[in-house]
Amino acid sequence: MKETYCDFIAGCFGGACGVFVAHPLDTIKTWQQASNTSVPTAITQIFKRNNGINGFYRGMFFPFVTNGAINSILFGVYGNHLRQLRRVCHSDYQREQLEYKNMFIAGSIAGFVQSFIACPIELIKVRLQTHHYYNKYIYGKRRTPMWMFKRIVQMDGFSGLFRGLVPMMCRDVFPYGIYMLGYRYTTTYLDNTEFVQARRRQRSDEDTEVDFVVTTLAGAWAGILSWVCVIPFDVVKTIMQAEENRKYHSTTHCIIDNFQRYGWRSLFRGSWMLVVRAIPFNAATFLGYEYALEWCHKYFQVQTRGPKFI
Asked: Of 6, 136, 144, 197, which is least surrounded by CB within 10 A?
Protein backbone atom coordinates (compact mmCIF):
# COMPACT_ATOMS: atom_id res chain seq x y z
CA MET A 1 0.00 0.00 0.00
CA LYS A 2 2.86 2.39 0.78
CA GLU A 3 4.28 1.78 -2.70
CA THR A 4 0.93 2.88 -4.14
CA TYR A 5 0.97 6.10 -2.10
CA CYS A 6 4.49 6.81 -3.33
CA ASP A 7 3.47 6.33 -6.98
CA PHE A 8 0.59 8.79 -6.66
CA ILE A 9 2.57 11.40 -4.72
CA ALA A 10 5.60 11.25 -7.01
CA GLY A 11 3.41 11.39 -10.12
CA CYS A 12 1.63 14.48 -8.80
CA PHE A 13 4.89 16.30 -8.12
CA GLY A 14 6.39 15.30 -11.46
CA GLY A 15 3.36 16.54 -13.39
CA ALA A 16 3.46 19.92 -11.66
CA CYS A 17 7.18 20.26 -12.48
CA GLY A 18 6.52 19.55 -16.16
CA VAL A 19 3.81 22.20 -16.47
CA PHE A 20 5.87 24.83 -14.66
CA VAL A 21 8.76 24.39 -17.10
CA ALA A 22 6.96 23.96 -20.43
CA HIS A 23 3.65 25.87 -20.31
CA PRO A 24 4.74 28.81 -22.55
CA LEU A 25 5.70 26.34 -25.27
CA ASP A 26 2.38 24.56 -24.81
CA THR A 27 0.53 27.85 -25.30
CA ILE A 28 2.37 28.50 -28.58
CA LYS A 29 1.67 24.95 -29.76
CA THR A 30 -2.03 25.15 -28.89
CA TRP A 31 -2.48 28.57 -30.54
CA GLN A 32 -0.64 27.40 -33.65
CA GLN A 33 -2.78 24.28 -34.01
CA ALA A 34 -6.05 26.11 -33.38
CA SER A 35 -5.33 29.00 -35.78
CA ASN A 36 -3.33 27.17 -38.51
CA THR A 37 -0.45 29.68 -38.26
CA SER A 38 3.33 29.47 -38.15
CA VAL A 39 5.35 29.67 -34.94
CA PRO A 40 6.41 33.35 -35.42
CA THR A 41 2.83 34.36 -36.24
CA ALA A 42 1.47 32.49 -33.22
CA ILE A 43 4.02 34.14 -30.91
CA THR A 44 3.19 37.59 -32.31
CA GLN A 45 -0.57 37.08 -31.97
CA ILE A 46 -0.28 35.77 -28.41
CA PHE A 47 1.89 38.74 -27.44
CA LYS A 48 -0.38 41.36 -29.04
CA ARG A 49 -3.79 39.98 -28.14
CA ASN A 50 -2.91 39.17 -24.55
CA ASN A 51 -1.13 42.40 -23.64
CA GLY A 52 2.43 41.13 -23.52
CA ILE A 53 4.31 38.15 -22.23
CA ASN A 54 1.58 37.21 -19.75
CA GLY A 55 -0.28 35.66 -22.67
CA PHE A 56 2.22 32.81 -22.80
CA TYR A 57 1.23 31.88 -19.24
CA ARG A 58 -2.51 32.20 -19.83
CA GLY A 59 -4.34 29.29 -18.26
CA MET A 60 -1.22 28.04 -16.48
CA PHE A 61 -2.57 27.87 -12.93
CA PHE A 62 -5.31 25.42 -13.85
CA PRO A 63 -3.04 22.82 -15.55
CA PHE A 64 -0.33 23.43 -12.94
CA VAL A 65 -2.73 22.21 -10.26
CA THR A 66 -4.63 19.64 -12.28
CA ASN A 67 -1.75 18.15 -14.25
CA GLY A 68 -0.32 16.98 -10.95
CA ALA A 69 -3.54 15.07 -10.36
CA ILE A 70 -3.50 13.65 -13.91
CA ASN A 71 0.08 12.43 -13.59
CA SER A 72 -0.69 11.11 -10.13
CA ILE A 73 -3.35 8.89 -11.68
CA LEU A 74 -1.10 8.01 -14.62
CA PHE A 75 1.90 6.89 -12.57
CA GLY A 76 -0.26 5.42 -9.81
CA VAL A 77 -2.27 3.21 -12.17
CA TYR A 78 0.88 2.35 -14.10
CA GLY A 79 2.80 1.30 -10.98
CA ASN A 80 -0.06 -0.77 -9.60
CA HIS A 81 -0.74 -2.61 -12.86
CA LEU A 82 2.94 -3.28 -13.45
CA ARG A 83 3.28 -4.83 -9.99
CA GLN A 84 0.19 -6.97 -10.65
CA LEU A 85 1.61 -8.15 -13.98
CA ARG A 86 4.90 -8.99 -12.30
CA ARG A 87 3.14 -11.04 -9.61
CA VAL A 88 1.42 -13.35 -12.11
CA CYS A 89 4.79 -14.39 -13.52
CA HIS A 90 5.81 -17.86 -12.31
CA SER A 91 9.54 -17.22 -12.06
CA ASP A 92 12.14 -14.49 -12.09
CA TYR A 93 13.21 -15.60 -15.56
CA GLN A 94 9.66 -15.20 -16.91
CA ARG A 95 9.34 -11.84 -15.16
CA GLU A 96 12.54 -10.65 -16.78
CA GLN A 97 11.49 -11.88 -20.23
CA LEU A 98 8.08 -10.17 -20.03
CA GLU A 99 9.26 -6.97 -18.32
CA TYR A 100 9.17 -4.70 -21.37
CA LYS A 101 5.87 -6.15 -22.56
CA ASN A 102 4.35 -5.64 -19.12
CA MET A 103 5.58 -2.06 -19.00
CA PHE A 104 3.92 -1.32 -22.33
CA ILE A 105 0.63 -2.91 -21.21
CA ALA A 106 0.65 -1.11 -17.85
CA GLY A 107 1.47 2.22 -19.53
CA SER A 108 -1.35 1.78 -22.06
CA ILE A 109 -3.86 0.97 -19.31
CA ALA A 110 -2.72 4.03 -17.37
CA GLY A 111 -3.11 6.19 -20.48
CA PHE A 112 -6.65 4.89 -21.02
CA VAL A 113 -7.71 5.62 -17.43
CA GLN A 114 -6.18 9.09 -17.22
CA SER A 115 -7.71 10.22 -20.56
CA PHE A 116 -11.17 10.39 -18.95
CA ILE A 117 -9.84 12.70 -16.24
CA ALA A 118 -7.58 14.70 -18.53
CA CYS A 119 -10.12 15.44 -21.28
CA PRO A 120 -12.23 18.02 -19.37
CA ILE A 121 -9.08 19.60 -17.95
CA GLU A 122 -7.43 19.93 -21.37
CA LEU A 123 -10.67 21.27 -22.84
CA ILE A 124 -10.77 24.11 -20.31
CA LYS A 125 -7.04 24.78 -20.77
CA VAL A 126 -7.32 24.93 -24.56
CA ARG A 127 -10.34 27.25 -24.40
CA LEU A 128 -8.49 29.60 -22.04
CA GLN A 129 -5.38 29.60 -24.21
CA THR A 130 -7.22 30.28 -27.48
CA HIS A 131 -10.14 32.38 -26.27
CA HIS A 132 -8.69 35.62 -27.60
CA TYR A 133 -8.23 34.07 -31.02
CA TYR A 134 -11.77 32.76 -31.42
CA ASN A 135 -13.65 35.41 -29.45
CA LYS A 136 -11.33 38.43 -29.45
CA TYR A 137 -12.75 40.94 -26.95
CA ILE A 138 -16.47 40.14 -27.16
CA TYR A 139 -16.72 38.98 -23.58
CA GLY A 140 -15.84 41.35 -20.79
CA LYS A 141 -15.93 38.84 -17.98
CA ARG A 142 -12.76 37.62 -16.37
CA ARG A 143 -11.78 34.33 -17.95
CA THR A 144 -11.05 31.90 -15.15
CA PRO A 145 -11.17 28.09 -15.24
CA MET A 146 -14.44 28.14 -13.27
CA TRP A 147 -15.95 30.71 -15.64
CA MET A 148 -14.94 28.56 -18.62
CA PHE A 149 -16.26 25.41 -16.93
CA LYS A 150 -19.69 27.04 -16.40
CA ARG A 151 -19.70 28.38 -19.96
CA ILE A 152 -19.04 24.93 -21.44
CA VAL A 153 -21.74 23.28 -19.31
CA GLN A 154 -24.27 26.01 -20.17
CA MET A 155 -23.59 25.76 -23.91
CA ASP A 156 -23.08 22.02 -24.38
CA GLY A 157 -24.18 20.32 -21.19
CA PHE A 158 -22.09 17.98 -19.07
CA SER A 159 -21.18 15.86 -22.10
CA GLY A 160 -19.54 18.94 -23.60
CA LEU A 161 -16.71 18.55 -21.10
CA PHE A 162 -15.62 15.41 -22.96
CA ARG A 163 -15.35 17.00 -26.38
CA GLY A 164 -12.31 15.59 -28.17
CA LEU A 165 -12.19 12.44 -26.03
CA VAL A 166 -11.80 10.04 -28.98
CA PRO A 167 -8.72 11.70 -30.55
CA MET A 168 -7.34 12.17 -27.05
CA MET A 169 -7.61 8.45 -26.36
CA CYS A 170 -5.90 7.75 -29.70
CA ARG A 171 -3.17 10.13 -28.58
CA ASP A 172 -2.76 8.77 -25.05
CA VAL A 173 -3.48 5.03 -24.76
CA PHE A 174 -0.77 3.21 -26.72
CA PRO A 175 1.63 6.19 -26.75
CA TYR A 176 1.79 6.09 -22.95
CA GLY A 177 2.84 2.46 -23.24
CA ILE A 178 5.61 3.63 -25.59
CA TYR A 179 6.34 6.47 -23.16
CA MET A 180 6.97 4.22 -20.18
CA LEU A 181 8.77 1.59 -22.21
CA GLY A 182 10.96 4.20 -23.93
CA TYR A 183 11.98 5.76 -20.62
CA ARG A 184 12.89 2.43 -19.03
CA TYR A 185 14.77 1.19 -22.09
CA THR A 186 16.74 4.44 -22.39
CA THR A 187 17.71 4.52 -18.72
CA THR A 188 18.90 0.92 -18.95
CA TYR A 189 20.96 1.71 -22.04
CA LEU A 190 22.51 4.85 -20.54
CA ASP A 191 23.24 3.12 -17.23
CA ASN A 192 25.49 0.68 -19.05
CA THR A 193 27.56 3.34 -20.82
CA GLU A 194 31.09 4.03 -19.63
CA PHE A 195 30.38 7.75 -19.24
CA VAL A 196 27.52 7.20 -16.76
CA GLN A 197 29.35 4.51 -14.84
CA ALA A 198 32.39 6.78 -14.47
CA ARG A 199 30.16 9.61 -13.20
CA ARG A 200 28.58 7.32 -10.63
CA ARG A 201 31.93 6.18 -9.33
CA GLN A 202 32.85 9.84 -8.79
CA ARG A 203 29.60 10.59 -6.95
CA SER A 204 29.33 7.38 -4.98
CA ASP A 205 29.16 9.31 -1.70
CA GLU A 206 25.95 11.18 -2.61
CA ASP A 207 22.66 10.35 -0.86
CA THR A 208 20.51 10.13 -3.99
CA GLU A 209 20.45 7.29 -6.48
CA VAL A 210 18.79 9.46 -9.12
CA ASP A 211 21.16 10.38 -11.93
CA PHE A 212 20.26 13.87 -13.15
CA VAL A 213 21.78 13.44 -16.61
CA VAL A 214 20.32 9.97 -17.26
CA THR A 215 16.85 10.93 -16.03
CA THR A 216 16.83 14.15 -18.07
CA LEU A 217 17.95 12.50 -21.30
CA ALA A 218 15.70 9.46 -20.89
CA GLY A 219 12.67 11.59 -20.01
CA ALA A 220 13.21 13.90 -22.98
CA TRP A 221 13.69 10.99 -25.39
CA ALA A 222 10.64 9.12 -24.06
CA GLY A 223 8.54 12.25 -24.58
CA ILE A 224 9.72 12.71 -28.16
CA LEU A 225 9.25 9.04 -28.97
CA SER A 226 5.69 8.90 -27.65
CA TRP A 227 4.60 12.16 -29.30
CA VAL A 228 6.08 11.90 -32.77
CA CYS A 229 3.66 9.17 -33.90
CA VAL A 230 0.44 10.80 -32.65
CA ILE A 231 0.79 14.45 -33.71
CA PRO A 232 -2.30 14.37 -36.03
CA PHE A 233 -4.50 13.18 -33.17
CA ASP A 234 -3.25 16.00 -30.95
CA VAL A 235 -3.98 18.52 -33.72
CA VAL A 236 -7.50 17.17 -34.20
CA LYS A 237 -8.11 17.16 -30.45
CA THR A 238 -7.01 20.79 -30.16
CA ILE A 239 -9.16 21.91 -33.11
CA MET A 240 -12.26 20.16 -31.77
CA GLN A 241 -11.76 21.50 -28.26
CA ALA A 242 -10.90 25.07 -29.28
CA GLU A 243 -13.98 25.85 -31.39
CA GLU A 244 -17.23 26.42 -29.51
CA ASN A 245 -19.83 26.10 -32.27
CA ARG A 246 -19.54 22.30 -32.62
CA LYS A 247 -18.68 22.58 -36.29
CA TYR A 248 -17.25 19.08 -36.35
CA HIS A 249 -19.54 16.13 -35.73
CA SER A 250 -16.80 13.59 -35.17
CA THR A 251 -13.07 12.97 -35.28
CA THR A 252 -13.32 11.66 -38.85
CA HIS A 253 -15.26 14.74 -39.95
CA CYS A 254 -12.61 17.02 -38.45
CA ILE A 255 -9.78 15.15 -40.18
CA ILE A 256 -11.49 15.12 -43.59
CA ASP A 257 -12.54 18.78 -43.41
CA ASN A 258 -9.08 20.05 -42.47
CA PHE A 259 -7.44 17.82 -45.06
CA GLN A 260 -9.70 19.17 -47.81
CA ARG A 261 -9.33 22.81 -46.76
CA TYR A 262 -5.66 23.01 -45.83
CA GLY A 263 -4.01 19.82 -47.07
CA TRP A 264 -2.21 17.05 -45.20
CA ARG A 265 0.26 19.49 -43.66
CA SER A 266 -2.53 20.94 -41.52
CA LEU A 267 -2.67 17.68 -39.56
CA PHE A 268 0.95 18.19 -38.51
CA ARG A 269 0.87 21.89 -37.66
CA GLY A 270 2.56 22.69 -34.42
CA SER A 271 4.60 19.49 -34.67
CA TRP A 272 7.97 21.16 -34.21
CA MET A 273 6.74 23.15 -31.23
CA LEU A 274 5.15 20.02 -29.80
CA VAL A 275 8.42 18.11 -30.05
CA VAL A 276 10.39 21.04 -28.62
CA ARG A 277 7.90 21.29 -25.74
CA ALA A 278 8.15 17.55 -25.09
CA ILE A 279 11.85 17.81 -24.26
CA PRO A 280 11.71 20.11 -21.17
CA PHE A 281 8.25 18.94 -20.13
CA ASN A 282 9.06 15.24 -19.91
CA ALA A 283 12.58 15.79 -18.61
CA ALA A 284 11.16 17.88 -15.76
CA THR A 285 8.31 15.41 -15.20
CA PHE A 286 10.59 12.42 -14.75
CA LEU A 287 13.11 14.38 -12.69
CA GLY A 288 10.35 15.47 -10.33
CA TYR A 289 8.90 11.97 -10.30
CA GLU A 290 12.19 10.19 -9.60
CA TYR A 291 13.30 12.55 -6.84
CA ALA A 292 9.86 12.54 -5.20
CA LEU A 293 9.63 8.75 -5.47
CA GLU A 294 13.01 8.31 -3.83
CA TRP A 295 12.07 10.70 -1.03
CA CYS A 296 8.74 8.90 -0.47
CA HIS A 297 10.42 5.50 -0.32
CA LYS A 298 12.80 6.80 2.32
CA TYR A 299 10.05 8.55 4.28
CA PHE A 300 7.68 5.55 4.28
CA GLN A 301 10.61 3.13 4.59
CA VAL A 302 9.61 1.20 1.48
CA GLN A 303 11.98 -1.58 0.50
CA THR A 304 12.29 -1.32 -3.28
CA ARG A 305 12.67 -4.49 -5.28
CA GLY A 306 13.76 -4.80 -8.90
CA PRO A 307 14.27 -1.79 -11.18
CA LYS A 308 14.40 1.72 -9.74
CA PHE A 309 11.66 2.94 -12.09
CA ILE A 310 8.42 1.11 -11.37
From this structure: 136
